[in-house]
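Hi P.,

Sorry for the delay on this. The queue was packed all week, but I finally got your sequence through. Input first:
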Amino acid sequence: MKAFRLTAFAAVLLVAGIAAALAHGKMNASIPKDGEIVAAGLSEIQLQFSKSLRLTLIHVRHVENQTEIAVRSELPESFVDSARIAVDALQAGSYEVSWTAVSKDGHVMKGSFAFSVKPSLDAQSEQ
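Then the structure:
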């Protein structure tokens, strides 16, 4: 009987842990998509979340020269399902976007994705 109670208690804890994990939001999609190659001049990055989150930090980094790209728009002050982030027109290269957000229950979530910007046709014809 004692073994049954311990097993039942362990099962309840497992289910509670899974339910808590599912309650937190995550990034469902982005524009550009993770791994996508886009045309030069991209000036907006979009994030879509599975639940409303308050986006607290976003970094856009040019991978090759390790420079931080300035974010030109304010982060939303409320809980949102999606966010549009303005940046200066991106030049050719690889970029990494990392973000931090807080869920309504106070848990901090983080994520990142990467994409590449291909050289413009003008830059290609000059080579």
